[in-house]
Design brief:
Elements: E1 8-12, E2 17-23, E3 26-34, H1 38-51, E4 57-63, E5 69-72, H2 82-91, E6 97-104, H3 111-128, E7 132-136, E8 138-145, H4 150-159, E9 163-169, E10 173-180, H5 184-192, E11 199-204
Antiparallel strand pairs: 1-7, 2-3, 3-6, 4-5, 4-6, 8-10, 8-11, 9-10
Helix pairs in contact: 2-3
C-alpha cells in the first residue's frame, strides 16, 4: 500500500535562513521561514519588521497552501516586490513558507522592472540556500482501544502508514493517530468494522 502523491508537499526546514544581494547600491536581505499558518506568518513578519525598523522596506510573501497566501509591497510601487517574491514560492510549489525581503535603499532608483528582478532574485537567492523538505499531509484523530485489541490497532496503524502520538492509559487506551489523507477513509472503514468490539473512533480533528 502506497500513499498518494496528493499526500505529499514540499516546504523548507524549520531553521530560518538569510541571504543578501546588492544591486546598484541597494542592499536586499532575504529571510526565509517555515510557518504553519497565517497567524504565525504575520507574527514572524511583525517581529522582523521591528528588528529591521530602519530599513526602507520590508516586503514579504507567504504561502500556507495553494489557496491561502498573501504578499505585500510595503511601500514599493504596486506589484514590484511582494508579487515577485510570491511567484518564487508558487513557482517552486512550496507551502507553509514565508519570505521577507528587507531593502536598504542605496541612492539609485531601479525602476519597475529593476525592482521586480531585484525582489525576485533576493527571494531566489535565499531559497537556494535553504533545505527543501518533503512532508506528508496527515489527518489526526483519537482512537479508543480495549487492551485486548491493542495488537489489532497497532497492525492497522502500521498497515496504513500511520503515526501514533500521545497515548493515555485508563480503563481503555486512547491513542492520537495520524494517517495520510488518501489512506484515511480505508483506515476509518477498518477501524469501524470493530465498532462495539473494542475499537472506536472518538474524535476527528482533521
Amino acid at each position: 500500500m502506497t500513499t498518494s502523491s496528493s499526500d505529499n508537499f514540499f516546504t523548507v526546514s524549520a531553521t530560518p535562513v538569510s541571504a543578501e544581494i546588492k544591486i546598484k547600491g541597494s542592499k536586499f536581505i532575504g529571510h526565509i521561514f517555515h510557518v504553519v499558518n497565517k497567524s504565525q506568518a504575520e507574527s514572524v513578519y511583525d517581529n522582523m519588521r521591528r528588528k529591521y525598523y530602519d530599513a526602507t522596506h520590508n516586503c514579504y510573501a507567504y504561502r500556507i497552501s495553494a489557496d491561502e497566501f498573501r504578499y505585500s509591497d510595503d511601500g514599493e510601487p504596486s506589484g514590484t516586490a511582494g508579487k515577485p517574491i510570491f511567484q518564487v514560492l508558487e513557482g517552486a510549489d512550496l507551502i507553509k513558507i514565508l519570505i521577507i525581503v528587507t531593502r536598504y535603499f542605496g541612492g539609485t532608483k531601479l525602476g519597475t522592472g529593476g525592482l521586480i528582478r531585484a525582489y525576485g532574485d533576493a527571494a531566489k537567492t535565499v531559497l537556494s540556500q535553504t533545505r527543501i523538505e518533503k512532508k506528508t499531509r496527515y489527518i489526526t484523530q483519537n482512537i479508543e482501544s480495549a487492551y485486548e485489541n491493542l495488537s489489532i490497532l497497532l497492525e492497522l496503524v502500521s498497515r496504513f502508514k500511520g503515526i501514533i502520538g500521545k497515548t493515555e492509559y485508563t480503563e481503555k487506551i486512547v491513542f492520537s493517530v495520524q494517517i495520510p489523507i488518501s489512506l484515511n477513509p480505508d483506515f476509518n472503514r477498518d477501524v469501524d468494522s470493530f465498532s462495539g468490539r473494542g475499537l472506536e473512533r472518538i474524535i476527528v480533528d482533521a
